[in-house]
Amino acid sequence: MTNWQALIREQIEKERAAATQLLQEWVREPSVQGEERSIQEKIAQRLHAMGMEVDLWVMGGEELLKHPYFVSPRSEFSGSPNVVGVWKGTGGGRSIILNGHVDVVPAGDPAQWSHDPFSGEIEEGKLYGRGSTDMKGGNLSSLLAIQVLQALGIRLKGDVIFQSVVEEESGGAGTLAAILRGYKADAALIPEPTNMKIFPKQQGSMWFRLTVKGRSAHGGTRYEGVSAIEKSMQVVTAISKLEKERNDRIVDPLYAKLPIPIPINLGVIEGGKWPSSVADLVKLEGRMGVAPGEKMEAAKREMEEALAALAHDDPWFAEHPVELEWFGARWVPGDVGEDHPLMEILQDQFLKVTGERAVVEASPWGTDGGLLTTLADTPAIIVGPGTTAVAHYPNESVELDEVFRCAEIFALTLMEWCGYETK
Amino acid sequence: MTNWQALIREQIEKERAAATQLLQEWVREPSVQGEERSIQEKIAQRLHAMGMEVDLWVMGGEELLKHPYFVSPRSEFSGSPNVVGVWKGTGGGRSIILNGHVDVVPAGDPAQWSHDPFSGEIEEGKLYGRGSTDMKGGNLSSLLAIQVLQALGIRLKGDVIFQSVVEEESGGAGTLAAILRGYKADAALIPEPTNMKIFPKQQGSMWFRLTVKGRSAHGGTRYEGVSAIEKSMQVVTAISKLEKERNDRIVDPLYAKLPIPIPINLGVIEGGKWPSSVADLVKLEGRMGVAPGEKMEAAKREMEEALAALAHDDPWFAEHPVELEWFGARWVPGDVGEDHPLMEILQDQFLKVTGERAVVEASPWGTDGGLLTTLADTPAIIVGPGTTAVAHYPNESVELDEVFRCAEIFALTLMEWCGYETK
């Protein structure tokens, strides 16, 4: 019997230098929102060269823009095509989507970086740059897994659908567009930076805006007014109480290690215009975590009820209810049963490759996996190289060894999941 | 014996139409900060025509700009001359300053006004417009008092110093400049809109800015950060406790009717940049009331101590102390004894003119009187037509009857205070 693992590892070693260079090229593409065309065209060419059926398209149209899960600050995507490459299986196997995003968040202040944010420089085994860990490193693991299988002459029975999407950082419009274009599979892997932990469940999230009202007055007679800043404190307390109630309900052992599995974060506060006037309006903006199995509408309702309950103790809120608005980003939660066959396969390959048992957890943030699981009937599991601790921050980097370990695990997983034939 | 009161009232009636027109002209001058030259030159001409020694000057210079009580967002005042007119007494009497500001706050959104903000339109006995109540109406009362005495051939023994100052709305640099130019007197009247209540004491105030620190983190793992918004709530509570302590100490019966004699108002809050990030910084801006007899430095120290005390209960504040900054506007408190002879004279004239006893209170806001009392050894009493309820708001207006009643009270008060001779 062929020792596929040894052959795959050997093949990865052979391709390591070229693959590292490819990752550097990807990181050197500053594919921030609206600027993804260049990298996407290069990826499309590569997929084509690998014999895949390639689909590069600019998303848009009513169905997408009016979809209830469509979230984006823009509606025009000509600088941001989506790319999908399908490696057709020989038939009779399970299909899989390997999904990853190429959009990166802005580099921020370059002065805070020790390397140029788009240099792709390598130092002590780490490749530096915006997007290295989130998530071009993971994308490389996926691509390399396919490349290695091809190089070894392995034909998978199920289709492998490699998706290089845009707009993940703004709420998933790229993956949504791919779903609406008809792409689905029997399962999906998304190599977001989990530090190679396996996340069958992901927290969803939604942004909200609260408008708290007061009544203006001169600061010298502030008792003639009602301070929206003071009223906001009651609102903050109510939100904190709601957060506690929601989290007390969560008994899933996957969440056991997290102090607050589904936090409600109040991230922005702004109100009042003049130091010696009583503030008559305060706006609070935040992010509400949604539990993996929870309906977003149910979470919204709980927020509405918590705000309405303020009126019970304070007649001010009865007359001046806090306004609630859901705006901006939204990530659908995802929930794949821990007994899903792909979970078992993944954990087995992880053990084979690393000699250690995989850590299975629930993710504290949303990914495009929620959309795949919920809308495309494609159970999505998140596992990939890199850590979120450095994502979105200066000096983002990814450990190259981990990228190649992930490629090895993915190659073996594809064989087990899709089934295979050899020449 | 001549019934001066009847003659004064009669003379005011004669001059009423012309005086009303003059107030309209003043209100039609949009003398917002930096735009006071036009009205000041007209006032200077008028004072000159009344035989007064007129002093129109543009303030400036090191002594002013470096003075510890100098507060202004600007240091260049060429568009904003100060005007003083002195009606010399015949000698042997007490002098008095009649101080009033011509600067007005901006009109704000004209759509919220039922009349044009600078129309000076009259409806049901009220004259409408920005500055009508704060405080061109009061300035007219002062000017008319002098005019009427002159028309009746009365010569006062003490000097009457009519001051038309700028920059009151920004903290009193105009009056400070007049003081530094050498103007002082045995007492002062300032017809700010007190609704004809007599304020021998005025609350001072100072603006402050607090910077509350947190530590950023992703909202999905918000427990890894420290929310500056949550920390701000502790700061708001501490400020509220300090306000209570400071007000519990105030036993002055003049403050008996005020729920919070010297409030600390938090007027502005701003912090955080992203709904799904933990806010790492919140800024709070506010106004601290200072008691009439209190030193501003002592009030500042109490604020510093209250903020320092946060560290006792929460080590976060020990490592990340709240930053305190005193910025922007500042009004020195004022305190004239209720037994001051001008108080008695004023109350007597009020009773004569209105048939009612004057209401004596402490003002909940600062005026330029604090500077006169503290720096120029000129005890200043605040009493004038109009109400602060409409000052700084759309549809500001002043009741014309009250303006003329005030002129009558002032004319009689000048005679009693300065002493008089008749031709």
Describe this structure in words.
Chains A, B: It is an enzyme of class 3 (hydrolase). Chains A, B: Its EC number is 3.5.1.16. Chains A, B: GO terms for molecular function: acetylornithine deacetylase activity; metal ion binding. Chains A, B: Keywords: Cobalt, Hydrolase, Metal-binding, Zinc. Chains A, B: It comes from Brevibacillus borstelensis AK1. Two copies of one chain form a homodimer. By secondary structure, chain A is an alpha+beta fold. Chain A folds into two domains: 289 residues, 3-Layer(aba) Sandwich (Aminopeptidase), CATH 3.40.630; 128 residues, Alpha-Beta Plaits (2-Layer Sandwich), CATH 3.30.70.360. The first copy, chain A, is 36% helix and 22% strand. A six-stranded mixed β-sheet of chain A has the order 1-2-7-3-8-16, with helices on both faces. In chain A, β4 and β5 form a beta hairpin. In chain A, α1 packs across α4. The longest helix of chain A is centred in the N-terminal third of the chain and has 25 residues. Chain A is elongated, with a radius of gyration of 24 Å. The model of chain A has no long low-confidence stretch (mean pLDDT 95). Chains A and B meet through β10, α6, β11 and β12 of A and β10, α6, β11 and β12 of B. β11 of chain A pairs antiparallel with β11 of chain B, so a sheet runs across the interface.
